[in-house]
Amino acid sequence: MKITREVKTAVLVLSAIALLIFGYYFLKGNNLLDGSRTFYAVYDDVEGLARSSKVTINGLQVGKVTDIQIIDSRGNLAITFTVENDFEFSKNSIARIYGGGIIGGKSLAIVPTYEQGQMAKDGDTLNSEIEEGLLELVNDRLTPLQKKIENVIVSVDSLVNGFNEILDPNTRQNLRNSFASLDRTMASLENTSGTLNGILTDNKPKLDRTFTNLDEMSYNFNSFSDSLAEVNLAGIVNDFEEIAADLKNVAAKANSTDGTVGKLLNDPKVYDNLDRATKQLEQLLQDVKLNPKRYVHISVFGKRNKDYKPPKDSLK
Asked: What pLDDT tens digit does each residue of the chain (316 aa) get?
């Protein structure tokens, strides 16, 4: 049977249309010749998940995300993804968005469950879940640190304001004056140090002689110490002890009434006799002074002196 030109043209056009449709879906990430299963999951936020993001099971890529659409007025998103192998998992398995970092994007992982029950089939909607990525974890860790840094900044700002209040123009001027005074003091100390150096330089010979004399005095003192060490201190101490014992004996005898000294010091009769004799002697001297003719008298006839004056306090 001869194929006409019109049939060939029709077959060519249909083939071109089929190739165009196949290429369109292929470019969109859908392979019309692939027998993979299609699943759905609903999220309120896809965390940056994009079309053509990979779908994994236990870390193995088994498909990709084919479509993301807004499904209601609240902004909930429905994700369409494919699974390209025949791995069986329960309908209660979880479609978890994970990953995401500074460079890499988000991915979708199927967390399978193997409990007995209905298995997932093409077109089912799986439970959704979002795992915190690197940026979220860093943000969670940095948020408390940010608050602390803000508190520190506020404290530093308060401290700076306090310093600004303290360091008013008058205080700053006083500080400048203090530093200027300190500078002058240091200059004076430097001049004083130079003067002391000059004095020490001028008097160096005298200082040398002084230190020489001190050395000689130290040597003489050492010699005196050696001589003193050679003295029989034990004998001198014994002599002093004997003298002290003799003095003690003398004091004991003086305190007792046995000896002459003790009687003179301790017997009241001796004191009374001495006191009476002293008074009699005093009266005798007074009588001699008042009546000298009574004791020195030359008379031819032996007449008594009629002008006798008795001494005061005469003994009765």
From this structure: 567 878 778 888 888 898 888 777 667 655 555 567 899 999 998 888 888 899 999 889 988 998 999 998 888 999 999 998 778 888 889 999 987 655 657 899 999 887 766 888 888 999 999 887 666 566 667 778 778 888 888 888 888 887 777 777 888 788 888 888 898 899 888 888 888 888 888 888 888 888 888 888 888 888 877 777 776 777 788 888 889 888 887 777 767 666 666 666 666 777 778 888 888 888 888 888 888 777 765 555 555 555 556 666 654 4
Cα(110)–Cα(126) distance, integer angstroms = 9
Asked whether the whole model's pTM tops 0.85, one would answer no
Q: Which residues contact 134 (CB under 8 A, 6 or more apart)?
A: 99, 100, 101, 102
